[in-house]
Amino acid sequence: MEVLVASAIGVLTAAGIYMILRLRTFPVVVGMSLLSYAVNVFLFATGRLVINQPPILREGVTSYTDPIPQALVLTAIVISFGMTAVVVMLALGAFIEAGNDRIDLEQEEDGR
Amino acid sequence: MEHWIIAPVLIPAMLAPLIVLWMRYDLVTQRVASILGMSALVVLAIVLMTSASMNPPEVYRLGNWEPPYGIVLVLDRLSALMLLLTSILGLVIVLYAIGSGWDKRGWHFHSLMQFQMMGINGAFLTGDAFNLFVFFEVLLIASYGLMIHGGGRARLKSGVQYVVYNLAGSTLFLFALGTIYATAGTLNMADLAVKVAQMPVEQTALIKVGAALLMVVFAVKAALVPLQFWLPATYTNAPGPVAALFAIMTKVGTYAIVRVYTLIFPITGTTGTLAHDILLPAAFLTLAIGMIGIFGARDLGRTVAYAVIGSVGTMMLGFAQFTQGATSAGLYYMVHSTLVAAAMFLIADLVRERRGRWGLGYTDAPLMKNHGLMAGMFFVGAIAMAGMPPLSGFLGKLMILDATRGQWALWATVLVTSLIAIVGYARAGSQVFWRSYAVEAEEDELPPGPKDASAPGLAFTATGILLAGSVALTVLAGPASNWLQGTAAQLFTPSQYIDAVLAGAEERAQEAAKVGAHEHGHMEVSEEMQAEDGHGGDTGVADPHAADGQPAGQTDTHSETGQDAPAAAH
Questions:
Q1: In angstroms, rounded to a whole number, what is the distance separating the alpha carbons of residues B173 and B186?
Q2: Which pick of A36, A104, B196, B420 has the fewest CB atoms within 10 Å?
Q3: Nearest by CB to B532, which of A38, A57, A69?
């Protein structure tokens, strides 16, 4: 299972990095989402991978899984979801204003 | 005093939704509320700063959870200083935005400003690494809104770049935090400092990776070379007052570097000179590229944006030494450069508003309104920014040079780049302000003056306040640098910070036990947490701390007592 999770994180990260280096906004947004999936799984795995264990210690429970990464990953999911929405709106706004979805600036926009 | 520590986060957090929901269609009430809120923050910051300079670091435990389980806010001298700087800048920028009419050019300027203040203040106050990430996101999402305030093609396009760059940075931040949590098993900064210090040196490889990743994240925020690419286009295309506000944003990254690498990964600790080794070459390059950028830029906005990069390089040369003297010099330079960089962005905006279709480019343009006043302000600002006597930039650079005696490469770089900056500013000033006298223009071709300035006097006053701040920093250099030396001394005795957060749990637990039954619920929780900490290693299933070979019996004093107290309560 460790191999599976680790390679999933690796593949997601690699694909995400490739996508955010593209020149158009849509692949960049998709790449950002892939990266955030990768980091969410990574965060989840920082508490070590455990199967079928409760995240809270109760009477009679001797083994458990670390609950903190689960709380962290919830926060991270909410934030990355909101941020993706923001970047989609911005990209749309820029597309409507500028008439193209290129992510780089032209000479005169760049002030050069 | 204790509860006031959270007020710098709470006041803007409550005011912002009020402005959106209640004062939405009435700009006048919005302006009044915004000014009142910012003034309250200034007063509060002064009170907190007085308290911080007389007491050891103070801690606010959110929901009264015991650290390291709960989130804490910590007020020490450094965070108090940053709070004061932020609130003054916030007030001035709101005044400027009202005076220049910038707040009319789009929706929700004032509420976004309040959210921005909430994020920045929270980032300066928090004592928890994950909470730092959350406040970073709060300040970033507000800055995305402010960055594209007013709209327009170039602004939206550079806004997209800014957002994507920072999102990538945030993702990296999470990777770094995950690595650190996996290794140390905690994200509370004080607890992290204790845990990292106890790690055997041969097992620090993974935590070093985490530390280096964090450095990259903070370098993105602080615009250190080679991660500065987002800054020039963003700052040039952002609305003037927002660019001025962003002068504090690079300092959030700087603050985080100073905080994390003096507290958690000190140069004397198990991670060694890692931070120094990365930061010093980056600081050299940042300074050089920033100052050469001033010389090479073809418009005033870019000149000032590169000056910000250069000033980050200068202060980082101080911070990268990780000595008490150089850090206090760096802090002085940081205060100076925030005020002056913000003033320069405001001046650039005043010029842009009055120069009409000529914009900020270094081309010949006819005389504009208020020409002399703006030229004078630019002159003062450029002197301060380039580090010429007699203003605070000169003193700041002098302090940094004084603290790094014997490092000839550093002296040479600072002095040569200052010369380049002076030449760059001279060129900018003569092109924008002097050449205009020689330009003959038709009557109907004259610059039209500001578009919708409701009170240009207020805009000039706001800019003047920032320059006056630089003058005040020069006049009061003695007391200021004494105070900053105290701040640096506090930073280099991290035990003060750690004790403030982690110690005292014992007494509090006993007190709670005495108080009796109604505290029971809370104590039970900490017992549960404690039990988890204690038994996790035995089961060998999930406790990351045990897996990383930390010495057994390393339980901290504060958590041991967590177990004793409830027993007393029963």
A1: 16
A2: A104
A3: A57
Residues B117-122 have a mean pLDDT of 96
How far is Cα B199 from Cα B489, in angstroms, rounded to an integer?
Answer: 25
- What amino acid occupies position B439? V
**pLDDT band at residue B517, thresholds of 50, 70 and 90?**
very low
For residues A35 and A12, the answer to whether their CB atoms sit within 8 Å is yes
Tens digits of residue pLDDT in B271-318: 888 888 999 999 999 999 999 999 888 889 999 999 999 999 999 999
Say if CB B334 and CB B251 are below 8 A apart: yes
- DSSP-assigned letters across all residues of B194-213: HHHHHS-GGG-HHHHHHHHH
Chain B, nearest residue to A37 by Cα: B171
Residue type present at position B231:
L
Which runs of E-coded beta strand occur in B476-557? none
Collapse the DSSP code of B315 into the 3-class scheme (helix H, G, I; strand E, B; otherwise coil) and give the result.
Answer: helix
pLDDT tens by residue, B63-100: 888 888 889 999 999 999 999 999 999 999 999 999 98
Residues 444-473 of B with CB under 8 A from A: none
Q: Taking a C-beta distance cutoff of 8 angstroms, is the pair B468, B336 a contact? A: no
* Residue B188, token pair as written in the block: 């509370």
Q: What is the pLDDT of residues B12-34, one digit of tens each?
A: 999 999 999 998 888 899 999 99
Which residue has tokens 């594209």? B148
Contact B64, B519 (CB under 8 A): no
Distance CA B513, CA B446 (A): 78
pLDDT number for residue B445: 64
Rounded-to-integer distance, Cα B139 and Cα B122, Å: 9
Element (H, E) at B74: strand B72-75
Interface test with B, best of A25, A57, A104 (most B CBs within 10 A): A57
Question: What's the DSSP call for residue B73?
Answer: E
Tell which residue, B289, B282, B251, has the closest CA to residue B417. B289
Q: Looking at this protein, which amino acid is placed at residue B440?
A: E
Question: Where is average pLDDT lowest: B162-171, B433-442, B495-504, B531-540?
Answer: B531-540
A28 Cβ partners below 8 Å, 6+ apart? A19, A20, A22, A91, A103, B164
* Mean pLDDT of all residues in A21-25: 90
Phi-psi region of B239 (alpha: psi -120 to 50; beta: other; left: phi over 0): beta
